[in-house]
Amino acid sequence: MKNIYTLAFVALLTIVSCKKTENSAKDKIKTADWLIGNWENQLEQGTLSESWEKANDSTFNGKSFFIKDKDTLNNETIVLSQKGNDLFYIPVVQGQNNNEPVIFKMTKADAKQLVFENPKHDFPQKISYTKITNDSIVAAISGVVNGKTEGESYPMKRK
Q1: Closest to 83 in 3D by CA, of 111, 110, 103, 113
Q2: Mean pLDDT in the chain?
């Protein structure tokens, strides 16, 4: 009789742990909740602005602009989308890649950092967001260009 209770307990634990793993795999986009909002950095060269909003349970929409004086020098729309167990960062940069989306797959996610990579893209091959505080993040791009590793980082404050 004791073996039946032990077996039932082990079966219940297995079901609960599998369900928890399945739910956390389906909720990867929730690790990016801290990204939602409006972000900005006033630079000598102009103003970098980025905004994120939740479209639904599996999609966030983002916009990024770099404005100098009254001219928009860089305009980008971004979709952060969970498909199955994978999370994708999909930017469309006006004037680049024939205005087509480029897909970066999440390779790391925790409470303070999101990393997306596409080793086949010319530059960048890696995009990351790091949460410094609730009101401060750093977006970074990096990759290899002509055999040299290059990168740029963009600290931003919540607006």
Answers
A1: 103
A2: 87
